[in-house]
TrEMBL record:
Protein name: DUF2269 family protein
Keywords: Membrane, Transmembrane, Transmembrane helix
Organism lineage: Bacteria, Bacillati, Bacillota, Bacilli, Bacillales
Sequence intervals crossing the membrane: 6-28, 49-70, 90-107, 119-144
Taxonomic superkingdom: Bacteria
Length: 146
């Protein structure tokens, strides 16, 4: 059972990080063309597809991680890296789901309303970049077992 949970955890993490990286690159490449109906529509579609992959995979990472930590049954004598993965990782996932979900929904509405107007996507891309850096920081700490 633990092996299946670990696989789900790592697969979800790969999909989540890959989706964030892909949407950052795609939206950054479209940034100069925003304002045209085609680019705004494409940006809206990119955010929708991103949400379909990133949010479920982040949820899978959260659930599988919680179950694995419960199965370890270490109580309060956890090493720093495991404590960091549990607390910081869980917080990052929950913040990601809430903040990026809300920002993505608002951005999609603004892109649809301003079909031929310029819409700023920089705050959305910045929040994704911060999420990516935070995720990679937790992965580094866990990988090095600090």
């Amino acid at each position: 059972m633990y092996g299946l949970l670990l696989f789900s955890h790592l697969a979800g993490l790969m999909v989540w990080v890959g989706a964030i990286l892909a949407v950052i690159v795609m939206l950054f490449m479209l940034k100069g063309q925003l304002g045209t109906p085609e680019a705004n529509s494409l940006s809206k579609r990119i955010i929708s597809v991103f949400s379909r992959f990133a949010h479920p995979s982040a949820f899978i990472v959260l659930v599988s991680g919680v179950i694995m930590i419960i199965q370890l049954n270490m109580g309060s004598s956890k090493p720093f890296w495991l404590d960091m993965m549990e607390k910081a990782g869980g917080t990052i996932i929950l913040l990601f789901l809430i903040v990026v979900g809300i920002m993505g929904g608002k951005l999609k509405k603004r892109l649809q309303a301003a079909a031929s107007g310029t819409v700023s996507i920089s705050s959305y891309v910045t929040s994704l970049a911060i999420s990516l850096i935070a995720i990679l920081a937790v992965v580094l700490i866990v990988s090095l077992k600090l």
